[in-house]
Amino acid sequence: MFLLTSLIACMILACVMPFLGRRVLERRIVFVDLALAQFAATGYAIGLASDTSGPLWAGGITVVAVLAFAALPYASKLPKEAVMGAMYAVAAAAGMVVLTQLPHAEGHMTDLMFGSLLGASYFDLAVLAALGLLAIIMLRFAGNDTYIQRVMFYMALALAVVPAIHAVGIVLVFGMLLLPALAAWQGENNGPVWQALLVGMFGAVAGVMAAEFLDLPPSSSVVLALFICGAPMFIWNISKQK
């Protein structure tokens, strides 16, 4: 199968991201993933522009963002989504400025948004799986609203997000984090985790199969498949609350 590594990458994300996505929805900080992903993407862009290590730049900049975001308590009256959305806009603008200094800027921008899913190596997959497992373990120690525990929560997100951007791009990372978790949402609380995992896995397989047989862009195909697979469950869960 031509897209075998793509399928494995998506299945790894389908097993990791729903756990993180449920916590993001629970805390009402949906923009945090997009903001962290964009900071990491800006780091990759700096690495490309300076001909140095993109992953190191991405990791360093994301750690700084994590420490800054953790300074804002979950219970703060300051609109957290607005702060994180604003930081996403700043990071996106900085990344664009850096990339426009490079030859073939449009190609680099597309790679950061949609990743190089077709070019994911088995080493990339091993890193994705190892850091994803570590991220899930860290979630167990990130339950309360103290600075250290907020750092651990955002760091868990960063561990999963930074390597995933290189493999699948910002759009699929954001889609895999939120769409399965949202599909399982029940009223004002998270639904069973198995529902989110099921949507993620079915969406990953269906999206990659569609990309394989219909010659579609893999990352976009998986995001659309996640939406199609998750919509019936979302509607069913919402209807039960009426």
Oligomer classification? single chain
Secondary structural class: mainly alpha
Helix content: over 70%
Task: Give me the CATH fold name.
Answer: ABC transporter involved in vitamin B12 uptake, BtuC
Number of strands: 0
Task: Give the name of the CATH superfamily.
Answer: ABC transporter involved in vitamin B12 uptake, BtuC
What is the CATH class? Mainly Alpha
Rg, alpha carbons: 17 Å
* Arithmetic mean of pLDDT: 82
- The 3D shape can be described as globular
What does this structure look like?
This protein is an all-alpha fold and 242 residues long. It has a single domain (4-240), classed as Orthogonal Bundle (ABC transporter involved in vitamin B12 uptake, BtuC). 78% of the residues lie in helices and 0% in strands. The chain has helices at residues 4-27, 31-50, 54-69, 80-99, 105-114, 122-139, 147-168, 170-183, 193-214, 218-240. It starts with a helix and ends with a helix.
